[in-house]
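Same chain as my last thread, 306 residues:
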Amino acid sequence: MPDYVVGHKIPDSDSICSAIALSYLQTTLGKETVPARLGELSPETNFILDKFGFEAPMLKTSYAGESLYIVDHSDRVQGPDDIDDATILGIIDHHKLGDITTSAPLECWIRPVGCTNTIIKMMYDFHGVEIPKNIAGAMMCAILSDTVIFKSPTCTTADIKCVEALAEIAGIEDYKALGMEMFKVKSAVDGTPVRDLVLRDFKDFNMNGNLVGIGQLEVIDLSVFDDMKAELEADIAALKAEGERHSVILLLTDIMKEGSELLVVSDDETLTERAYGKATVDGKVWIDGFLSRKKQVVPPLQESFA
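reply #2:
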């Protein structure tokens, strides 16, 4: 029976490319390992997989009685629903340490970098395993996505060096141009159902017993949302009620202006003022410089629930 590698629910490009890259590494090291996913792929992820010739990892939501590596998260609410009945072999992540626990020792690679694939590149180097050209390309794209082409405050020197090294392996001369091509795919929202947009990059967090959902849509021009903003606001209100959440926040991130408009539905009208020092007006607030959910949005929000 093989081991599995799986990222978080509603997977992004980092989760999917991490599963592919880590499964190849572990299999090369002698442990048969299969990449998997917990949900459907985003247009950006499909773009990456198509460009480098990958099939989508298998859709697998149940892991009871099986062994797996967790990538790109360590919060139970973001992982498989039956994670307590599985054996966790390792966690590779670049977020805050979550609440997944194990009954046996495990391999942990957790680093304060911009992308899980940066850590997996370090793992390849540590084990002296050569990265195949197509896997290097996918890993590079995941890092560019997570670091917003190095604009995110989460980006580190390690992320930049890994992109440069992976681009050389993949034979990509202008990786920034490829990054912009990816974000143009992200920005194509016309014709996409509103719920699909809200859930495109969405994570739930347990904040001191309160369930808080935070989604993010990164585009190169915020005006693409002008005609649908009211629908987005209505849908996050519906999502809050459906999931019995305390709050739902949707970040509309403009990567060129380097900031985000937050659409907020919450049981606490002062939520953003307490967390970020800026009050919402009609359920909306623009915060200049906000690009990163994990570094700029989640930590102060978590503290506001303490």
